[in-house]
DNA sequence: TTGACTTCACCGACCAGACGGTACAGTTAA
DNA sequence: TTAACTGTACCGTCTGGTCGGTGAAGTCAA
């Protein structure tokens, strides 16, 4: 599991993410990744013996990064009601990047085989379970989770219809709902 | 615009949707669509001169169907607060199909070229504008819209983590929030 | 009526390029 | 020396798209 030469692997993963974003999913080719990483195809395939392994690693990397990001925010939200949901929201707000910076690797993986997203599904399920476990109003947390996923996924797919002020309003409203949530 | 022989076009579009669902996006090939439609590739390309045109039509068809569905529900919601949002929610609830019945053609189109989803973006933008225009609490409607999109997109991508009872609870909570919404 | 001609809808062989993956020889650091 | 790593050449497959047909139906002049 531990890479012997982490620099190559990391470089490749970064290049792969860039290719997925720029070339578009569906044009995610090994040649493109190798070229982008400043590497020959042989070198690429030495590090990732198949395209599937590369996509798997890309999904894995994204999850690890996101998890780290989430726990960074945990401190700020600690003690507040619905702390985890508030962190999830805060991460999403602060990652409000334009479409060119989305983790398109997830989509490239999906295009190859939907089952590559199973780790994401497990992570989301676990996060949701933790979020509702301590919630004063679990149903409100469900709605908030869905809204946040709505924000994240519309962004990922380039289907984000909210303008900047609407997004800000949505974030604020969600924060308020989470902070004030009591069973209806 | 009006097809001279609608039967072939309709048959092909149906087959294309089926192929997108069953073969998975990324394996959406013209040969597969032609075979599924009981047609030669030549015949397919007679009706849709390029793959792009086919995907375009697939997206268009989906939007038309969804729009019709939405206006079917408009009557039921008429008069209620946030009528359009309520309809949008109701359609989403009643289309709570398993993942095998999702409009995967949208993803196939996305894989080929993200700009194929622009009509969807326009439609969503328009729907959201109409939803907020008459809302007593526009920010609540924003949140509801995002939550519904969350439901729809997680479903589409196979990332739906809610179990049946949670989904039911989420639908109910959203209905309640929309029905009772007054400015916070 | 009939025969020449046109259009429509479709067929299927074929092609060129892209792509994933293999084979293997070379290089370099320990 | 050896093991980790890289580069290059190549292969087979898949796939979108082209192209020359084919039969059925219709049109129309003589």
UniProtKB/TrEMBL annotation, chains A, B:
One of its GO terms (molecular function) is transcription cis-regulatory region binding. The keyword Lipid metabolism does not apply. InterPro entries: Homeodomain-like_sf, HTH-type_TetR-like_transc_reg, HTH_TetR, TetR_CgmR_C. The keyword Transcription regulation applies. Residues 6-66 form the HTH tetR-type domain. Gene3D superfamilies: Tetracycline Repressor, domain 2 (1.10.357.10). It holds the Pfam family TetR_C_28. Residues 29-48 bind DNA. It comes from the Bacteria. Keywords: DNA-binding, Transcription, Transcription regulation. This is TetR family transcriptional regulator.
